[in-house]
Design brief:
Shape of chain A: globular
Radius of gyration of chain B: 34 Å
Number of strands of chain A: 7
Structural class of chain B: mainly alpha
Largest interface: A-B, 51 and 57 residues
Helix content of chain B: 55-70%
Helix content of chain A: 10-25%
Number of strands of chain B: 2
Oligomer: heterodimer
Order of helices and strands of chain A: EHHEEEHEHEE
Strand order of the largest sheet of chain A: 1-2-3-4-5-7-6
Largest sheet of chain B: 2 strands, antiparallel
Distance between the termini of chain B: 53 Å
Mean pLDDT of chain B: 91
Strand order of the largest sheet of chain B: 1-2
Low-confidence stretches of chain A: none
Strand content of chain B: under 5%
Mean pLDDT of chain A: 94
Shape of chain B: flat
Largest sheet of chain A: 7 strands, mixed
Chain lengths: 173, 892
């Protein structure tokens, strides 16, 4: 039982239960506010009946006219609310919004080690488009998979034809 | 230049600059745009409007027109006079938007959204509905299903329950897991039922168009949805299952007979548990309904669930969960049992037994996490937390601290097995602070990687304790980190208001502005600001040649001004952070949260008045006023004003403290998972307010001598003498509370006196404030003394009686230094290492009765506590030593 709705500033006062998870980053206010100001429809939150924040998705629309697409910037679900299909529902909204904006595809980056997430994205119809070397800085740096799912505008699914050779982060637009 | 002004945090100068530039180039589009933005930064909505209109006149673009309209809307939203908003701003904004429609210029989604914002502000829901249903509504595309949701919502606002019901019914069918839809559907249905609504005769034939207006219809609808979901392939949504229980609960509340005919609640709960018991959210899902169960139903529910768990002991041995699903179901069972109050009735012995059993299960459950990633949690962590909560119950009912000690070891054990779990860290911070040990909290807090806005929402758990437990260096660094966040935030976030204007996301603009207000009026931020200044006064003044009055000037404190906007203070603390499965009766209530906020404000007022009073005294002797050595001649207006300010502040502080003494709320204790109480009640108990007030009064009176001359001032001098005596007496009283051993023996059992350190720390703070004031008094008295000596010398042979004040002050200083010496002794005695107490041999824990964890965790706890006390002892001792050194320089 969930309520999905647009994320608002006040949610930042209460998203600790989700953000204290070690894999969820808490960013400075400008980061969230930029997304709220530019792509409010891409920033959605899931709320439990008692008002607790269960998870949220942040994304944006970007690209040139011929690569116009939706991008998933962050997707997180609190530990108590996992295995409920919540991430899939949040992803669905993002895809719908991208459809309404006439994007060709939706893409996202994921750590190559994050098997749970990669499996989930596969289930949701995403495939690995290319590998991005040392995309995540850290000790050591880690590669990312750039995963994509074609939207209805890309009738021939050209946007998701995999690129064989890995690319460097600076080559990613 | 604009960047420089912005970095200097002087945004008003940017506006001035562009105003001037536009005089030279009155049609420069970029200058106009920049001018508009500069007004946005300083929230001058009126000038924004003018700048946008001027822009539009020169460059008739829709965007500029919309900026002007939005600027008017902002004036309406933030106007202190709602009448002005209703009668002037909003109608004007609306007229401007209507003109756009008339000229056929409304093309974009953001224009339509702005139009809707205005109608919404005017509570004009009919017109909003027309827009949304009409052609303009077609333009709204991007927000997910916005149009559909909004239309349903507007029907509800118009209290058109027929339409509301129909709309939400459709929405529920469409998205059977969206909770708000059910709530709105139920609300509309019960409105119709309770008003006795029936369909008009002529529409009877067309039943599809009808809303659900009878209880039967509602039950039927929810049942249909539920059956559909149940029979669906794949994962079932929880919504329809919970909606049935919600409906039952509402029927009960409405005292409808249909409730009894409905499936019994405990059966629905049992069924839900069977499907979702292995999900973490099961507990949260069912809390609202477990409480509605009658006792009998509850018995049945819990016994059914227990049977389904398949965990009955075999031959007297515990049966453990065989997989993580079974484990999770058992956890949900325990959580719900606790929530239903089934732990309340257990005796202490039974609680200990259950706690031990659960802890054993925790250890056993660790096998499921053998290849755990450092970022993953152990599946059974809730076992450990529940086991701890049971012992904390025992601690609270019996007052026996052995339970408290034991829980620390258990939590240390838990964190060693599941280092990513923040609940362990939060709980440990809480308990270490209760025991007076702040030391371990720094690393626990750091490991949670608290940053940015979390410093406002979570920071309170450490900012409350670092200083009050004598860890001044740590306190200073957490204060600095918090203040940095607020400083940066203030500068950076305005840019996104500007972005929202540029991109036409108008709905976000008032939201951003309100958000910024909440942050800049944050209660925690305000407390930290004041505490940090007090800490600097305590620690930094009179060391390294830093003068009291210089620091006050540097801090830019104007004591006559109360900078705190008390009524706007926003309590941004996240108080839902600490996990608890306690029953409602023991849970942190809304009232508790309100009370806690009030108490925080009460304490803040003490601290803010302390700061301002101290600042006022510092300004009595600042360079401008104390330059001349002759009394009475230098009574410049500044001195008099500051003297007057000081008197007013003393009065204000005195009446505030009197009020708090009479206020029962001051003694309120919150549930353990709730916020810590502020220091007020301890402060009042030690009469620290009295100490400060008497010393402030003495300072004020001495200032009086300095301003009005010392001749014929015997009355004042007697008064000062009394005040100083009282200061000493009260200090001695507070000191006697601190002169006890850290470990005492009571009825053959050792007891660790964790109330000692907070008392020592409070008294040391008071000593710091007194010392500051002694410095001020000294500076006021010295010129008087010099003046007297000159007069004595002049009156060769004649006897000029030296006023008693000088001798009194000297005696006072001597006694004060003596008291500090004693306090220093008490402070040294809490260094557990130096008094070579071996806490691990103190047997604070009754090993035979409590055996949840091994000795290793126990010794880790003791070590951390020893180190922490050593640090507190050292920092307090250094502080006091500085004060003695300083006081010894005050020789009249």
């Amino acid at each position: 039982m969930t309520t999905l709705r647009p994320f608002t500033c006040d949610d930042m006062f209460r998203f600790n239960n989700v953000n204290l998870d070690p894999l969820t980053e808490t960013y400075g206010l400008p980061f969230y506010m930029q997304y709220l100001a530019l792509w409010p429809e891409y920033f959605q939150v899931a709320e439990a009946p008692n008002g607790a924040i269960m998870g949220y998705i942040m994304g944006k629309a970007e690209g040139n006219p011929d690569t116009w697409h939706g991008h998933v910037t962050a997707l997180t679900v609190g530990p108590e609310f996992r295995r409920l299909g919540l991430a899939a529902r949040l992803m669905h909204i993002l895809e719908e919004v991208s459809e309404s904006k006439k994007g060709y595809f939706v893409d996202l980056f994921v750590r190559v080690s994050n098997k749970v997430a990669i499996d989930m994205y596969h289930r949701l119809g995403y495939s690995v488009y290319r590998r991005v070397l040392e995309y995540y800085s850290g000790d050591p740096d880690e590669d990312a998979f750039d995963m994509r799912k074609a939207l209805s505008r890309d009738v021939h699914k050209k946007s998701i034809e995999p690129v064989k050779d890995p690319v460097r982060p600076e080559d990613v637009e | 230049m604009a960047i420089v002004f912005r970095e200097m945090q002087k945004p008003e100068l940017v506006s001035k600059m562009y105003e001037t530039a536009l005089k030279k180039q009155p049609t420069n589009e970029d200058f106009y745009t920049q001018l508009f933005m500069s007004y946005v930064r300083i929230s001058d909505y009126k000038k924004q409007q003018q700048a946008a209109m001027a822009l539009y006149r020169h460059y008739p673009k829709n965007a500029y027109y919309l900026w002007a309209v939005m600027s008017i809307v902002m004036q309406a939203i933030f106007s202190p006079d709602p009448e002005l908003s209703k009668k002037m701003y909003l109608p004007l904004a609306l007229k401007m938007m209507e003109k756009l429609i008339k000229d056929d210029k409304m093309d974009t989604e953001s224009e339509v959204q702005l139009y809707l914002i205005i109608l919404d502000q005017m509570d004009n829901y009919e017109d909003s509905l027309k827009i949304l249903k009409g052609k303009l509504g077609d333009k709204i595309l991007t927000e997910y299903k916005f149009r559909k949701y909004r239309i349903a919502c507007l029907h509800a606002k118009l209290e058109d329950w027929v339409e509301t019901n129909k709309a939400y019914k459709e929405l529920v069918k469409d998205e059977p897991d969206q909770w708000t839809f059910y709530i709105a559907y139920f609300k509309s249905a019960f409105e119709l039922i309770n008003s006795g609504w029936t369909p008009p005769d002529n529409e009877e034939s067309n039943t599809e168009e009808l809303p659900d207006y009878t209880t039967e219809m509602v039950i039927q609808f929810i049942d249909d949805i539920y059956k559909q979901e149940k029979e669906k392939e794949g994962k079932a949504h929880r919504g329809p299952f919970l909606a049935r229980m919600e409906l039952y609960k509402m029927l009960k509340q409405e005292k409808r007979p249909e409730a009894d005919a409905y499936a019994p609640l405990h059966e629905m709960l049992t069924q839900y548990f069977a499907i979702y018991g292995d999900k973490h959210c099961c507990f949260g899902d069912l809390t609202a309904y477990v409480n509605v169960l009658e006792d009998e139903g509850a018995e049945e529910f819990f016994s059914n669930v227990w049977k389904s768990l398949d965990l009955d002991p075999e031959e007297g041995n515990l049966t453990y969960a065989k997989d993580t699903k079974q484990l999770q179901r058992h956890l949900a069972y325990l959580q719900l049992s606790r929530f239903r109050g089934r732990h309340l009735t257990l005796s202490i012995e039974e609680k200990i037994q259950l706690s031990e059993e659960i802890m054993t299960r925790y250890k056993e459950s660790l096998k499921f996490g053998e290849n755990l990633l450092p970022t993953d949690l152990q599946q059974g962590d809730v076992y450990c937390l529940l086991s701890v909560h049971l012992l904390l119950d025992c601690w609270q009912t019996s007052g026996d601290d052995k339970f408290l000690w034991q829980t620390l070891s258990m939590l240390e054990y838990g964190i060693s097995k599941s280092p990513a779990n923040h609940h362990f860290k939060l709980q440990l911070i809480k308990l270490y602070c209760i025991l007076g040990a702040y030391g371990p909290c720094t690393s626990l807090y750091d490991k949670m990687e608290i940053k940015h806005i979390q410093q406002d929402t979570i920071g309170y758990i450490v900012t409350r304790f670092a200083q009050s437990l004598g860890h001044f260096t740590s306190a200073s660094s957490v204060y600095v980190a918090s203040l940095k966040f607020f400083g940066v935030n203030n500068k950076d976030t305005t840019e996104y208001i500007i972005t929202a204007y540029r991109y036409g996301t108008f709905a976000k603009i008032p939201e951003f502005v309100k958000f910024r207000k909440k942050l800049s009026n944050s209660l925690n931020y305000t407390c930290v600001t004041v505490e940090k200044m007090l800490l600097e006064l305590m620690v930094d003044v009179n060391t390294n040649n830093l003068k009291f009055e210089d620091l006050i000037r540097y801090m830019e404190i104007e004591p006559e001004k109360d900078e705190i906007k008390w009524s706007d203070l926003s309590d941004n603390r996240d108080l839902a952070l600490m996990i608890s499965w306690d029953p409602d009766s023991k849970h942190l209530s809304e009232q508790d949260i309100k009370d806690s906020c009030e108490l925080e404000k009460d304490w803040l007022k003490i601290r803010s008045l302390t700061l301002r009073s101290l600042a006022a005294t510092a300004l009595l002797v600042s360079i401008d006023n104390a330059a001349t050595d002759t009394p009475a001649s230098n009574g410049g207006t500044d001195t008099q004003d500051n003297g007057e300010t000081l008197k007013n502040l003393i009065k204000e502080l005195e009446s505030h403290i009197e009020q708090l003494e009479k206020k029962p709320l001051t003694q309120k204790k919150f549930p353990l998972h709730g916020p810590a109480e502020p220091r007020t009640s301890r402060y009042l108990e030690g009469k620290h307010g009295q100490i400060l007030l008497d010393m402030l009064k003495a300072t004020s009176d001495i200032n009086n001598l300095q301003v009005n001359g010392i001749d014929n001032s015997e009355d004042i001098q007697t008064r000062i003498e009394k005040q100083l005596e009282q200061v000493l007496d009260t200090v001695k009283g507070a000191l006697s509370m601190c002169q006890c051993s850290i470990v005492t023996e009571e009825e053959g059992q050792n007891k660790f006196n964790y109330n000692l350190l907070p008392n020592l720390s409070l008294l040391s703070e008071s000593i710091c404030f007194i010392s500051l004031l002694c410095g001020v008094c000294y500076k006021l008295l010295r010129p008087l003394k010099t003046g007297m000596s000159k007069r004595t010398r002049k009156k060769k042979g004649g006897v000029v009686q030296t006023p008693t004040i000088f001798e009194q002050f000297k005696t006072f200083l001597t006694s004060l230094v003596q008291c500090i010496g004693e306090l220093h002794g008490a402070v040294s005695n809490i260094d557990l290492l130096s008094i070579s107490l071996n806490l691990s041999k103190l047997s604070l824990v009754d090993k035979e009765k409590l055996s949840q964890v091994d000795g290793e965790c126990e010794s880790r706890v003791w070590q951390k506590i020893e180190q922490s006390y050593k640090q507190s002892s050292k920092e307090l001792s250094d502080l006091l030593k500085h004060k003695v050194d300083f006081l010894s320089t005050l020789k009249l």
